[in-house]
Design a protein that fits this description.
By secondary structure, the protein is mainly α. It has helices spanning 4-44, 54-65, 68-102, 113-140, 146-154. Keywords: Membrane, Transmembrane, Transmembrane helix.
Amino acid sequence: MPNIFLIALSIALITAGLLILRWALARVALLKDAGEEYDARRIDRPGTVAGVGREDFVRIYVSANEPRWALYAAGALLGAVVLTFPGLFLLNTIWEGVRAATGASDVFAPGYYPWMFFMAFGLVGTWAVSGMIASSLYYRRAPEGFEAAMMRARGTPIEEVEIKRRRPKWARRARPD
């Protein structure tokens, strides 16, 4: 009978690998699209790329549109895998230390329900730390929006330009007061 931890470990690693593959394939497609977009803008709307080189445009386009979430989700999964076994060791050490210090009965020995409860929620908490770190990095390292980055690359003062945002589909009929 296979070990459930090995199955879960395999699923997590395969999922992380697929997420990294998804990011890499999207990045390759975006690099191609960025070159085509630059060429099209030079012909149709040259003012939008005035003073911006091809390499800069490609860098801005890709950084604004790449699926960063896939990298950070893969990082969170890999972090959870890495933290699982040290977390289990630390949780078990804490449990045994508290149990020995309080002189608890055998009802609190490993294998019984209080221990299972502690280990289950402690392990979920350990995985949550990995997700917290990944989400914190995701939002802290967010690139500048495409329009703002293009304005900065063209030398347009961003403070003077108002970027129009489309209203969400659910708010099309709503009227502001």
